[in-house]
Amino acid sequence: MADKDTPENNGKSGDAREERLKAALKANMARRKAQAKARATQNDKADKDEG
């Protein structure tokens, strides 16, 4: 029984994992930025309605 964590297997799968993580982080940051922008415009709109 061969160990699954051999150095031969970690080469490409490590790169693929890093690419997936990078893409997920980029998507997460974009989503958070959009949410923050929506909250900011919502707060601005509420301030204008009150004053």
Summary of the model, kept short:
This protein is mainly α and 51 residues long.
Low-pLDDT segments: none
Query: What class do helices, strands and sheet pairing give?
Result: mainly alpha
Number of helices: 1
Shape designation: rod-shaped
Q: Write down the Rg.
A: 22 Å
Q: What is the succession of H and E elements?
A: H
- Tell me the helix content: over 70%
- The overall pLDDT, averaged over residues, is 84
Spatial gap, N to C terminus: 73 Å
Classify the beta-strand content into a percent band: under 5%
Largest pleated sheet: none
Number of strands: 0
Walkthrough of the structure:
With 51 residues, this protein is mainly alpha-helical. Helices cover 86% and strands 0% of the residues. It has one helix and no strands. The protein is rod-shaped and about 70 Å long. It starts with 6 loop residues before the first helix and ends with a helix. The model has no long low-confidence stretch (mean pLDDT 84).
Keywords:
51 residues, mainly alpha, 86% helix
Helices, strands, pairings?
Elements (H helix, E strand, L loop, with lengths): L6 H44 L1
